[in-house]
């Protein structure tokens, strides 16, 4: 517990708030000449439903370590952002709670951006589960939303389903394996209570010797913007830029594929998109679904 850091942070956040910010409008009007900068300690304590003396001691750097429930209550009273709340937990010597669990649905914000994309784009969870694709992404990469079980994860399919690799040149397979594994380790290490990530890692280690060997190298790196080579069954090899936009909850990414304007890749991509409506769903998707 960082007592001095906690005391300083609480004081500064309290002084940055006015009564009207927390709904104490009548109180503010009744006390036009307030000597205290921002909220009073007693007001924060009342908003957090804790003892005024306890809160006072925290700001003086001499209080006991507050419980997780108390830290959360103070964070709400001070209107802290997620990042500020996590910082408060660490100052108090507590593990920040998970921001939220994964959802089966893509977040509205990323869906809005996806709807505006005029190039292949899809929303993928941090565990590699494709939540939503536009038609252009389906034409480029095939329909990726028809899987079940562990097979919903692109990472899982990469190491367990040979068909997953057929869209990428064999020279790039080792790079993809390293990248997927380093990304999964970063997600796995982010939260001790992420049982979805733990279960995925356990199953991959059981199913894939390749994954187990790379996992034991302890490389850690979240996937970032890169250039990717894709083998399309109609137009052949495409080299595309892969742009990644991460949602605020850090559990979803919008991945956008683009080609350099005027390049041969751009011409081939245009051909893929032109014939997207004629491309039937790929039968191997259902055949390789995980029970």
Chain-wise SSE layout:
Layout: H1 3-15, H2 25-30, H3 41-48, H4 52-59, H5 68-77, H6 82-91, H7 108-115, E1 121-125, E2 130-133, H8 135-141, H9 154-160, H10 173-190, H11 195-207, H12 209-215, E3 226-232, E4 236-246, E5 252-258, H13 264-274, H14 284-287
Antiparallel strand pairs: 1-2, 1-5, 3-4, 4-5
Helix pairs in contact: 3-4, 3-5, 5-6, 10-12, 11-12
Can you describe what's shown?
The protein is of the alpha+beta class and 291 residues long. The chain has two domains: 3-91, 434 Repressor (Amino-terminal Domain) (Orthogonal Bundle), CATH 1.10.260; 108-171 and 220-287, Beta-Lactamase (2-Layer Sandwich). It is 45% helix and 12% strand. The protein has helices spanning 3-15, 25-30, 41-48, 52-59, 68-77, 82-91, 108-115, 135-141, 154-160, 173-190, 195-207, 209-215, 264-274, 284-287; strands at 121-125, 130-133, 226-232, 236-246, 252-258. Helix 11 (195-207) packs across helix 12. The radius of gyration is 25 Å and the shape is elongated. The two termini are 46 Å apart. Residues 27-31 and 280-291 have low confidence and may be disordered. InterPro entries: Cro/C1-type_HTH, Lambda_DNA-bd_dom_sf, MLTR_LBD. Residues 31-85 form the HTH cro/C1-type domain. This is Helix-turn-helix transcriptional regulator.
């Amino acid at each position: 517990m960082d007592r001095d850091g906690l005391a300083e942070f609480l004081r500064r956040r309290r002084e940055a708030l006015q009564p009207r910010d927390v709904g104490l409008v009548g109180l503010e009007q009744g006390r036009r000449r307030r000597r205290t900068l921002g909220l009073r300690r007693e007001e924060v304590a009342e908003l957090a439903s804790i003892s005024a003396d306890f809160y006072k001691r925290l700001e003086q750097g001499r209080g006991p370590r507050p419980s997780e429930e108390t830290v959360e209550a103070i964070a709400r009273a001070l209107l802290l952002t997620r990042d500020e709340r996590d910082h408060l937990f660490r100052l108090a010597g507590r593990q920040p709670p998970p921001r939220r669990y994964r959802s089966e649905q893509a977040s509205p914000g990323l869906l809005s951006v996806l709807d505006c994309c005029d190039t292949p784009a899809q929303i993928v969870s941090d565990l590699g589960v494709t939540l939503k694709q536009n038609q252009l992404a389906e034409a480029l990469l095939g329909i990726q939303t028809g899987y079940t079980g562990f097979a919903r994860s692109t990472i899982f399919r990469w190491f367990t389903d040979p068909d997953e690799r057929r869209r990428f040149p064999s020279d790039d397979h080792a790079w993809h394996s390293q990248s997927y594994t380093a990304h999964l380790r970063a997600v796995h290490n982010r939260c001790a209570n992420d049982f979805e990530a733990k279960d995925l890692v356990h199953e991959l280690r059981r199913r894939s010797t390749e994954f187990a060997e790379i996992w034991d190298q302890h490389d850690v790196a979240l996937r970032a913007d890169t250039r990717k080579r894709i083998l399309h069954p109609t137009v052949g090899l495409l080299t595309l830029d892969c742009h990644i936009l991460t949602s605020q909850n850090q559990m979803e990414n919008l991945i956008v594929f683009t080609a350099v304007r005027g390049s041969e890749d751009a011409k081939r991509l245009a051909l893929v998109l032109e014939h997207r409506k004629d491309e039937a769903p790929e039968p191997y998707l259902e055949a390789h679904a995980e029970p």
